[in-house]
Amino acid sequence: MIVREILMSSLLFLNSNVLSFSTSTRTPNDDAKPLDYELMVKLEKTNGSVNYLFKKDWERELGEPYIDNVVKFKYKSSRDLYVGFDLVEKESKNIFYKTYNIGFYDKAGWGVGVAITKENTLANFHFGKKFKKDDLEYFINISAKTDLDENQIFNIKSDVKKWVTKNINIFGLYKHEYYNEKQDFQFKIGAGIKL
After folding, report:
1. Which domains does the chain have, with CATH numbers?
2. Spans in the chain with pLDDT lower than 70
């Protein structure tokens, strides 16, 4: 049964991808440095039983180049179980972690489980929901992974897409990530293509 679900999900995987791009440039806080820039490429799927995100950022901040990578994968079974992993490598903010996630979810978007790192096992609580109306799509995701001591990973992500055609969108994104006293804020505007 689960093998059949994975095969069916893999077929849907090919038809439900969104490829997104954003770019920005800004003056640095130090006038002696060259312009700061950021280029982001993202491939994602947020519908169905297989969800994933592959994101790469190239940026320069105060003259220093950085490359950030984020890979997230989640499989949701028809029995309200999920498994997945998060891999975050953000040179720009010195945030690096990998978690293996397993737990339960409900159709309303709530989930509870555990996130296992190399050093710790964390409680994992999250809420994720997509709302659609006509050509507008809004996605919210809130996640808290904690051992109720010194190890915390909190994520808030909000994404609004306006589909200008069946396959092309413009989007606005807000993201705040907190990892053991290190933080990363992102505000982005860009365009996406459904593959």
Report:
1. 2-194 (2.40.160)
2. 1-16
